[in-house]
Write a structure and sequence with these properties.
The chain is mostly helical and 662 residues long. Among the domains are: 67 residues; 64 residues. Helices cover 67% and strands 4% of the residues. It is built from 26 helices and six strands. The strands form three sheets. Strands 1-6 form a two-stranded parallel sheet. Strands 2-3 form a two-stranded antiparallel sheet. The chain has a two-stranded antiparallel sheet with strand order 4-5. Helix 1 crosses helix 17 and helix 13 packs antiparallel against helix 15. The longest helix is centred in the middle third of the chain and has 33 residues. It starts with a strand and ends in a 6-residue tail after the last helix.
Length: 662
């Protein structure tokens, strides 16, 4: 089974970060933190801010899922017909959507089962309305369906082989989706006044009980709302619901699809299938340059126009004109990067640089989005006259929809998405394009386990009450375990506590340890009875192409035991898969000192972003072994070590100099 180490790692990282953030959301006692913020060390404050930033990375799983999903579709196009593959895609998305509704309402940590684990027995009404909560799993399901429909249109008459054309179309769709997002959100608010945040109050007559309800308008209530009202809310959810609507997050999914198409194209080039790069244009490079120049001119004129309106503002809101000016600058900067590297591409001196050039462009685009997003946030906060904007960002880093009224949604979306794009392309550059997937895959098995059954982990997160209960029993013997009880006991009779800024890290360690043990044991049964296991079994019954694959496998290898699934092949899919290297290690032109030069560029970025120092240090050490000692990798080694030492020094300094007291 062929696997991309970067995709598997990032999928696991996204789920790990989800556990990290949800642990803080569920088990941190916030009131003392907000009250005593001034007494905490700089280290604690920085760590909390970093946590909030990572909390906004919910789109990473969506992006990575789209990448893996597109690769799976193209594998299906080769094995089966386009029609069969698209049917499999859409039906699979519908099944996932049904499972998402079930998870949010009933079986998940936010549904009834999750509340039962906390002792909230009276929360049974969640079953009949909480499925309308639009989380990442809903977004993934809808994006699977919409990606299938999009790819079905593009794949007509062999169009799936026109990868270059399809990449351009996806780029256009990304721009259109982001541009339409405010209009779609405004449309939803016109359909239902104040959607999704406005509250509605009524008495819910259900099963002979009269239950007073005050909830947001996003939720549809079974046995109260009409079929029409339930249907309207069902379709408004993906358009403008909280917390991850497809406007603008379908753009994130399409970004993952573009990354997948790029990887497929490179893989086909390596295998010699040149027909996969067929373009519909006779002279694509000429037309692409003309389009780029036209967009360059348009964005420049927009920038100048909106700058004038911002400065003089004879009509309208000058602050909005300032935001438009920044948006124009964003387009201008990104097009500048693309145009520069398209021109530079003509003078590339070796094939390796030609192969890795798109990765460099991707990293630069991600960095540009990140920086321009920060500028936009800063302008809104410090020049927009809205003192609540920064508080809203801190409170809703994970919910772009909630940032709409403050005018920061687009800029924060750029910050988060840009950082994810940059991280994705950087990881591809240091693994699949350096022949390091085997070593990288072995070293990241711990995190890849989380990504092997991501929906199961999402669904069963309420098991974190087990380590929470254990810590509540021993916490009184640990001086720094600052326990707080909400309304007496969360779980009557057991003392299931919440924790402050120190005790929460002990609980987090216990929760991660629990997941490590469960996943190690669970993989022995091929993750039977998990979320993915049930979906795979249902898919094998109702999807024709999956049923055909199951029958063919049984004819060759015999029938599998009931508790196993080909979808969850632990040996070939997790422990020792066939890793894909776009460029194998022996194909890297060491005489060109490519790793040495790469580490030299990367080490400087590590001075700003601490984890990158560790990456550049690893690349530098490899370069000194394979390319010999030279000025590039010597400088890279020194700067990487300085960056690592600087990061550790800041960490120690903020802990002790700025005073963490026990």
């Amino acid at each position: 089974m062929k696997r991309y180490a970067s995709i598997d790692f990032l999928r696991g990282l996204a789920i790990f970060l989800m556990i990290f953030v949800h642990t803080l959301m569920r088990w941190v006692w916030r009131d003392p933190i907000y009250t005593d913020m001034g007494s905490y060390s700089l280290f604690v404050i920085i760590f909390l801010l970093a946590t909030l930033f990572l909390g906004g990375w919910c789109g990473l799983f969506l992006m990575v899922s789209a990448t893996g999903n597109m690769i799976s579709m193209y594998n299906g196009f080769q094995r089966n017909s386009v029609r069969q593959t698209i049917i499999k895609q859409i039906v699979g998305g519908i099944l996932l959507l049904g499972a998402a509704i079930l998870t949010e309402s009933t079986t998940g940590y936010g549904g009834y089962f999750g509340n039962l684990a906390l002792g909230n027995i009276d929360k049974w009404t969640l079953i009949f309305y909480k499925g309308y909560h639009f989380e990442t799993i809903h977004a993934v399901a809808w994006c699977v369906i919409l990606n299938g429909i999009t790819q079905a249109i593009l794949s007509r008459k062999g169009g799936w082989k026109k990868i270059n054309r399809n990449i351009v179309i996806y780029l256009i769709l990304i721009i259109v989706i982001v541009a339409l997002t405010p209009s779609v959100w405004n449309f939803a608010q016109k359909v239902i006044q104040g959607y999704p945040d406005a509250k509605r109050t009524f008495v819910w007559e259900i099963f002979g009980k009269s239950i007073p309800v005050t909830e947001i308008t996003q939720y549809g209530f079974l046995f109260h709302d009409s079929i029409w009202e339930l249907t309207i809310r069902f379709f408004l959810g993906p358009l403008a619901g909280k917390v991850e609507p497809i406007f603008p997050f379908l753009a994130v999914s399409y970004t993952g699809s573009i990354i997948a198409l790029f990887l497929i194209r490179k893989q086909k080039e390596k295998e010699g299938f040149i027909e996969y790069d067929v373009s519909v244009m006779k002279t694509p490079e000429v037309w692409f340059k003309r389009l780029t120049v036209f967009l360059w001119f348009t964005s420049t004129m927009s920038f100048i126009s909106f700058t004038a309106l911002w400065l003089f503002s004879p009509i309208g809101n000058p602050f909005k004109f300032m935001q438009y000016m920044i948006l124009s600058f964003l387009i201008f900067a990104l097009l500048g990067i693309l145009f520069y590297y398209i021109k530079k591409k003509e003078n590339i001196e070796n094939e390796y640089k030609h192969a890795t050039l798109p990765l460099k462009i991707g990293m630069l685009i991600g960095f540009a989005l990140f920086v321009i997003g920060l500028i936009g946030v800063g302008l809104v906060v410090f020049m927009g006259g809205d003192p609540t904007a920064i508080d809203m960002i801190l409170a809703y880093t994970y919910d772009v929809r909630a940032l709409y009224e403050t005018g920061t949604w687009l800029w924060w979306f750029c910050v988060v998405t840009g950082s994810q794009i940059g991280a994705f392309f950087l990881l591809l550059r240091v693994t699949e394009f350096r022949g390091k997937t085997h070593k990288f895959g072995q070293k990241t098995l711990f995190l890849r386990r989380f990504g092997f059954v991501p929906f199961s982990i999402y669904n069963y997160q309420f098991i974190d009450v087990i380590p929470a209960l254990f810590l509540s029993l021993i916490g009184s013997f640990i001086p720094i375990t600052d326990q707080y009880s909400r309304n007496g006991f969360i779980f009557p009779g057991f003392g299931l506590y919440q924790y402050g800024v120190y005790g929460i890290w002990i609980l987090l360690g216990l929760i991660i340890l629990m997941y490590w043990g469960i996943l190690r044991l669970w993989q022995r049964s091929h993750f039977a009875l998990g979320f993915e296991w049930f979906l795979a079994k249902i898919s094998n019954l109702i999807i024709p192409s999956k049923r055909k694959e199951r029958i063919e496998n049984e004819q060759i290898n015999g029938p599998l035991p009931w508790w196993q699934s080909n979808r969850l092949n632990v040996k070939d899919g997790l422990v020792s898969p066939q890793w894909v290297d776009i460029i194998s290690e022996d194909k890297i032109p060491r005489e060109k000192l490519v790793d040495s030069k790469f580490s030299f560029k990367l080490c400087w970025l590590g001075l700003i972003i601490a984890p990158i120092s560790l990456i550049s240090l690893g690349v530098t050490r490899t370069a000194r072994k394979t390319e010999g000692k030279n000025a590039y990798n010597l400088c890279g080694l020194i700067i990487s070590i300085i960056g690592a030492i600087l990061s550790v020094s800041i960490l120690i300094g903020t802990i002790f100099v700025f005073g963490i007291s026990f």
